[in-house]
Amino acid sequence: VSRYTSVTPRDREQMLAAIGVGSVQEIFDRQIPAAVRLGRALDLPDGLGEQEVYAHLRALAARNTSAEDELSFLGAGMYDHYVPALIDMLMERSEFLTPYTPYQPEISQGGLQVMFEYQTAISELTALPVSNASVYEGPSAVAAAGYLAKLHNGAKRFVVSAGLHPHTLETLRTQAHGYGMDVVEVGLRDGVTDHEAWAQAIDGETSAAIFAQPNFYGAVEDAAALSAAAKSNGAVGDGMAGNGASATASKPPVGGATPVVIAQVDPIALGILAPPGECGVDVAVGEGQSLGNRLDFGGPSFGFFAAREEYLRRMPGRIAGETTDVDGRRGFVLTLQTREQHIRREKATSNICTAQALNALAGVVYLSWLGRRGIIELGELLLARTHYARETLCALDGVEALHTQPVVREFAVRLDGNVAAVRRRCAARGVNPGVDLQQLTGRDDDRGGLLVAITEQRSRADIDRLAEALRVAVAAEPADPISVAVSV
Amino acid sequence: MTQVTELPLQRERAQTIFEKGAPGRRAFVCPQLDVPAVDGEQLLPKRLRRAQPPRLPEVSEPEIVRHYVGLSKRNFDLDSGFYPLGSCTMKHNPRLHERVAALPGHARLHPLQDPERAQGALELMWSLQRALAEISGLPHVSLQPSAGSHGELAGVLLTRAYHESRGERRPKVLTPDTSHGTNPATVTMAGLEVVKLATNSDGGVDLDDLRAKADSDVACLMLTNPNTLGLFDRNIEEIAAIVHGVGATLYYDGANLNAVMGISRPGDMGFDIVHFNLHKSFTQPHGGGGPGAGPIAVSERITPFLPRPLVVRRADGAFDLDHGGERSIGRLRGFQGNYGCFVRAYAYICSLGADGLKDASETAVLNANYLLARLREHGVAEYLPLAYGELCLHEFVLSGGPMKRELQIKTLDLAKRLLDFGFHPPTVYFPLLVEEALMVEPTETETRETLDAFADAIAAILREAAAEGPEVAQNAPYTTPVRRLDEVQAAKRPVIRQAL
Fold it and tell me: What ipTM, to 2 d.p.?
């Protein structure tokens, strides 16, 4: 079906005459060799009218159980936070929805100023001076930060905490393999990065030291201590005798590089958590979905990327900068473009072109909506409810905390029973109790693990309903012998 | 037109949201604390807490709405006017797609929902994979990459994995000098080395140069076909034979797929790996710089290495995520990709069907050639000649070299003057090998009247320069919210956030 076009037979005739050909076919015939022409119709269904397409897509949507259809405690990287109505309205505006990247600043001041405001908001949240205008999403943002470290110091190894999201670890490995970087994983101890092993693993050949805050298991890490240990164990002798330096001062710096400390941080927690910039972190990246973006089965959302000043010229992606026009008016442009692929080609700091501008708009509107007080109030609410949920669940028979670290809006428990079966029983009662940890990580240690996320959309009554569903489900399940063995 | 009196929209001075509002103002009302209050220190010790709150705005909801609606009015967009940005395929974005993507069953579906309770989403992805496979002429698809350049990275990593599986280390990737900047940038990120290929007098790959450079060190040739000149490389079969002859793979940059849907397929041309730009050919709105999606399709020999997970249909007819694939290059991002973009692209394919997609490409090519003809009719050609060829496919590249020499206006000046006529300018200064390049892609969704108006505007600007001198264009634009901006100052002393 011909759709969204306007050429009538009469138009066509006149247009072909202007071109000087007899048919559209002739234009193709004169340019594309017959041997590589398809010569048949594509094997696809016939086109449909708008209402038929709507009905089809609606029927597909109806076969999904969304956060609208059940009481969901799923998280592990994306969260069912409330998206205020004004965000829908602004994202649907043609002027934000339909332009391309702002290559012509004079007619793109709206989008460029949004980027500038977004950069300011991310910079404030992370307490780091420079932010770009967005990258794709969380895990690939970590890989992008790793690439920045490689360009910065040329060392050959990433030391990563096992507290990173498994998708982050895998994404980082995929890309690090490309540019020839080893990835060494440091395990956890009582839910947080094992500080001793962390310090041991980092040396002068470490290009970047990477951890998550809070980590994948919901635990709040001691970010300042992890950063300090990374700095002092990297380039020993560069004058940064920090915590634990005495223990490692005897270790000779092999490559002599100071590792770039990278943290994947949860932005919604940054109203109450010490920001990465004040914890010695060099580059803070993360998944922005929590900030005013829908779940959308995993995307599109946005990744954020903030850093210390010294990394500005190695940043990936677009950056909006302030300037003036010929008459002295304040204005905004894409700046520092000599970093980018369309100028520098093979010498670019990244290949990224299209990023997530519209989703970043939702992010900065959300942060304005929350506001200076709101982000703290929301953080405190999440903290209190998450604590309540952990206490309530762990009071049940057959449920225990996987770790006892502070948690902000997500926590891990271990169930005395088969997690998949427990989850099925809960689902039958309209409750999705959370993510099956081992299914996601594949780690033996995570057997019996359940990761539970609490957002402001989950009230105390909802948490009580979860506890009841879980109580019944765990009681009905015979104990999983292996999980019992592990938890002993 | 060339007045210097300030227009009303120019009198508004830019003020950021951080400069608005007042202490205590707010939009968000926090839900009540409905759980027992616990000592804050016990929940989160002080040393882990933030001491100073982030200085976010303090604004009311009406202020937020007025601020961002105000900003939106300082943007040009596809719904407002012609946007012939070459290589970007700015075709109409149907609003149906926004409606279906916003259905809660899609929009509020968690990415880790159990596959048996996300059957609609998985079926949609599977169906989209099948459609893209058919359109590209390649058997298997991964939807995971987030944008075209992310798809390219997947493609180069796949090529590496393929060669490594055969015990080969091939360090070089060939890219024509007309290629998109993302191609060479991707090669470097994947740890390989770029070797540039020359362009012949027809605008295609220089076969002698290719033969000279194609050897057993070459992992891949990355090609766009039609290329960034809007020209189909007629030697594609021979190119494929040379590349495959040395054991390398052939990569298709799908940025220009809008020229050939249902007409010619990359797989049939001999390509091993293709990326699609769903935000170009399949009309996902671009959002002022994303989101996009860059699915890839591959030949059988590349299939074992595809990123995980894949959407599959099991023998019982149910859809599932396959996390297996021991030879997979692994993930490129979290979860399953930009699903919201898949919903829109799938709705588009459902609306158009096989003949509609072909009609879209045919009309895109008709519109491009008509606009090209109009620009020749008006005597524009003496200043803005077509860089290569006689006809084009979906886009064409003019050279502003003669215009610069004879009228003293550069392509940049022409572009800025077009803003005063209400048009988004074409892509400028790309591809690099064309002097003062102007790359025009009208797309199939524009009316003939719009194409005529654009051609008339170009002719008028050239006439104006000939009659009144170059200053009018050199100082343009005059009617935009701000006029030419000082990019040098912005880069020299970067101010990239609001001072607070």
Answer: 0.98
